[in-house]
Amino acid sequence: MKFFIDTANLDQIREAAALGVLDGVTTNPSLMAKEGISGKEAVLNHYRAICEIVDGDVSAEVIATDFEGMVREGEVLAALHKNIVVKVPIIEDGLKALRHFSDRGIRTNCTLIFSAGQALLAAKAGATYVSPFIGRLDDISTDGLALIEQIRVIYDNYDFETEILAASVRHTMHILHCAEIGADVMTGPLSAIKGLLKHPLTDSGLATFLADHKKAAQAVA
Ligand code: E4P
Fold first, then answer.
1. Phi, psi (5° rounding) for residue 145?
2. Are 180 and 173 in contact (CB under 8 A)?
3. What is the pLDDT of residue 99?
4. What is the DSSP code string of 63-118?
5. Choice among 87, 124, 194, 214 that is catalytic
6. CA proximity to 130, closest of 94, 82, 170
7. For the chain, what percentages of helix, strand and coil (3-state, to nearest 5) are there?
8. pLDDT digit string, tens, across residues 130-164
9. What domain range is 95 assigned to?
10. Does pTM top 0.70 for this prediction?
């Protein structure tokens, strides 16, 4: 299972990369705005900076919602760096853009997936990744993980190569359940990734080991 971090914050990306388990980054216009990044050059430079930190896929989202605009923006983004994956929303023109990019060898992440039907269309259009937003579905009392399971079955039935990128991951249990049901990738916050490390028995066990080591050293001295 690949681990992506879902942020445009360079410090958090550096911290996650230093852990040695980071495979990529996803961003979106809201995450870029949160970092105060605005204006075409600033946005492009920020993507370049992220690509310098992480040797893995970096999703960069188009803002246009018409086919020509998405193609124009996507081609600029893809030319920035070999790690860039063009993120495209699952709307009608987005579907056409996915096919356009796929036919030209430009990798894509189809975003804002909330149904299996959308995921099926994205795979047929040649998307590299699909991003079902599990946390946002959970927010409206709909089972986000059930959607991942449904897409897994459909993709396996037909050997689609599109990877399932579980997005809108909020906590450690989302990550673990996604791993159990076969999501190819998860993208989440640094807190959820680091949360997997935590166990009170690890902390108390380590404290005991260190205390015993100290006692033994004092006894010998
Ligand atoms: C996916 O790529 C999105 O950036 C993201 O996971 C959305 O998550 P949110 O629902 O926490 O905003």
1. -70, -30
2. no
3. 98
4. ---SHHHHHHHHHHHHHH-TTEEEEEESSHHHHHHHHHHHHTT--EEEEEE-SHHH
5. 87
6. 94
7. 55, 20, 30
8. 999 999 999 999 999 999 999 999 999 999 999 99
9. 2-220
10. yes
Place 219 in a pLDDT band, splitting at 50, 70 and 90: confident
Q: CA angle, corner 145, sides to 157 and 27, nearest 5?
A: 100
N residues, the chain: 221
Q: Percent of the chain scored above 70 by pLDDT?
A: 100
Residue pLDDT, tens place only, 59-112: 999 999 999 999 999 999 999 999 999 999 999 999 999 999 999 999 999 999
87 is catalytic: yes
Q: Is 149 in the pocket of ligand 1 (CB under 6 A)?
A: no
Domain count for the chain, please give it: 1
154-213 per-position pLDDT tens digit: 999 999 999 999 999 999 999 999 999 999 999 999 999 999 999 999 999 999 999 999
User: What's the rounded Cα separation, in Å, for the pair 144 and 88?
Assistant: 20
**What separation in Å is there between the alpha carbon of 20 and the centre of ligand 1?**
22
Distance 168 CA to ligand 1 centre (A): 4
CATH code, domain carrying 54: 3.20.20.70
- Return the number of other C-beta atoms located less than 10 Å from residue 153's C-beta: 11
Supply the pLDDT for residue 128: 98
Q: Which atom of ligand 1 is nearest to the CA of 26?
A: 2
Beta strands at 163-166 and 185-188: parallel, antiparallel or unpaired: parallel
